[in-house]
Amino acid sequence: MKKTTLLLALSLFAFQSLISQNRKLPVDTVVTTQHSVTINGTPINYTAKTGTQPVWDEMGKPTASLHYTYYTRNNVKDRASRPLLISFNGGPGSGSVWMHLAYTGPRVLKIDDEGYPVQPYGVKQNPYSVLDVTDIVYVNPANTGYSRTIPESGKEVDREKFFGINADIKYLAEWLNTFVTRNNRWRSPKYIVGESYGGTRVMGLSLALQDQQWMYLNGVIMVSPADYKLYNTGGAVENAISLPYYTAAAWHHKALPSELQNKDLLEILPESEAYAVNTVIPALAKGGFIGETEKNTVAEKMAYYSGLSKEEILDHNLAVPVQYFWKNLLKDKGYTTGRLDSRYLGIDRQQFGARPDYSAELTSWLHSFTPAINYYLQEELKFKTDIKYNMFGPVRPWNNDDDNTRDNLRQAMAQNPYLNVLVQSGYYDGATTYFQAKYTMWQTDPSGRMKDRFDFKGYRSGHMMYLRREDLQNANNDIRDFIKRTMANGKSAKY
Q1: 399 burial level (CB within 10 Å; 0-12, 13-18, 19+)
Q2: How far apart are CA 304 and CA 258, in angstroms?
Q3: Which listed residue, of 17, 143, 177, 303, carries a Cα 20 to 30 Å from 209's Cα?
Q4: Is 78 buried (19+), middle (13-18) or exposed (0-12) by CB count in 10 A?
Q5: Predicted confidence (pLDDT) per residue in 230-284, tens digit
């Protein structure tokens, strides 16, 4: 009887201990593992460190813990001269999973050559990773991936310190200072890459790192960048410069007139770009005071370049929303097209409407990315936690006020002769279109004095161009070439 009572008491104690535990991530920890990969035919051994590092407040207390994964090539004799690539995704609110497991890292998703899910889910070696030329760290901002904010006892998190353009840039710059110091990378050439909203983030970080952390960069890489000076602002410019994207997506789906359809994509895009800049912007700027003859002429030519009808374009007063295009380009065939990658097709409840029911491409991506990142971090990199990996985390509301990031990049470049910029975009991206990215690049330095330090690369895919195997190879090679070209190699930083 006494033995039974003792066992019952021990069981109750164990149960109470279990339910009293909190599901939380260690604030400061790291797990180290060893791996190998073959890149462009060369076997490479590397170390992976994945863990958490605190964000400190003014009093030295942790206010958040950011999860990261850091890859370094082994047997490097001179680490000081080896570049460091710092990688962010966007959202805002997105984890670093996308470029980590599909683009630049040593492992990529098991998907088909066009980027569609394949079971069983998982990862495989990335034969095109840039780990051969640079070490890489993937950073999850607050509340994304495994990263979490840390409230003071009995208080709520001060969201204004994390969730806005300027707050995000400020605390990430501080965090990077700690990371670079801990890992002895102050002497290394440094590059930052940001995808989508990450484009805004890295534009701002370029100056914040210089002015607040005294950390100077060699390169900023923007992948399918969202420039909030333009993105979702409406108006003549944003509406007009959607036209070349319409041309690209319609060409892919064979929805253009035969005169255009029979040409290669890169032959017809310059025509559409020139028409958008030279004719559509001025026409939209006239608003309701445009003459009927001009309006009809412009609508007819926009129909020619877009795959939509002249009547549809006139119904929208020449300003056709991208949502309408996704919904209606292939309406007669019973499909919608994807937002972030218009190669993807969706099926809506009804054909009539102004926007698709769902994002066909995003559901496909989540289908393959979510199981892969959870498997990879926990089983291959041995980072064990019950915390949920937030593909998209709770960061709203997000403060977009006082966005000076475009000019911040210009100022950082002016102050730092070493700093160069690479912009990468997919022609079929309907959210942050390739022509918006070109426009951002053109507008960053109005003087034109630094235009030789900008480079644009386009790919025949969408927002995550690297999901298509051919573009995975090409885009990584473009980053590899950019890094090699922008290394100082003994040249002084002066004009």
Answers
A1: middle
A2: 10
A3: 143
A4: exposed
A5: 887 888 999 999 999 999 999 999 999 999 999 999 999 999 999 999 999 999 9
**Structure tokens of 112?**
């088909």
Tell me the one-letter amino acid at 413: M
Backbone φ and ψ of 407, nearest 5°: -70, -30
- Distance of CA 304 to CAs 243, 260, 266, 417, Å? 11, 9, 16, 44
- In terms of DSSP bridges, do strands 148-149 and 219-223 run parallel, antiparallel, or are they unpaired? unpaired
Question: 201: closest CA among 41, 377, 10, 408?
Answer: 408
* % of the chain surpassing 90 pLDDT: 88
CA angle 492, 494, 495 (to 5 degrees): 135
Beta strands in 188-308 (DSSP E): 190-195, 219-223
Helix (H) or strand (E) holding 35: strand 29-39
Q: Whole-number mean pLDDT of the chain?
A: 94
pLDDT band at 124 (very low <50, low <70, confident <90, very high): very high
Estimate the share of the chain in helix, then strand, then coil, as percent rounded to the nearest 5.
45, 20, 40
In sequence order, what are the residues at sequence separation of 6 or more whose Cβ sits closer than 8 angstroms to the Cβ of residue 420? Answer: 218, 219, 220, 413, 453, 454, 455, 482, 485, 486
Per the CB < 8 A criterion, the answer to whether 105 and 98 are in contact is no
Phi, psi of 31 (to 5 degrees): -120, 130
The whole-number pLDDT of residue 21 equals: 57
Match domain 29-230+367-486 to its CATH number in 3.40.50.1820, 3.40.50.150, 3.40.50.300, 3.40.50.10490. Answer: 3.40.50.1820
> What tens digit of pLDDT does each residue of 425-481 get?
999 999 999 999 999 999 999 999 999 999 999 999 999 999 999 999 999 999 999
- CA-CA distance, 115 to 206, in Å (whole number)? 31
Report residue 166's pLDDT band, with 50, 70 and 90 as the boundaries: very high
- CATH 3.40.50.1820 residue ranges of the chain are 29-230+367-486
Q: Residue 332 and residue 432: Cα distance in Å, rounded?
A: 26
DSSP string, 218-253: SEEEEES---TTTTT--HHHHHHTTHHHHHHHHHHT
User: For the segment 393-417, what is each residue's pLDDT rounded down to a tens digit?
Assistant: 999 999 999 999 999 999 999 999 9
Summarised one tens digit per residue, pLDDT across range 60-80 is: 899 999 999 999 999 999 999
Asked if residues 33 and 16 have their Cβ atoms less than 8 Å apart, the reply is: no
> What is the distance, to the nearest Å, from the Cα of residue 288 to the centroid of all Cα atoms in its chain?
37
| Nearest in space to 322 (alpha carbons), one of 207, 233, 210, 421 | 233
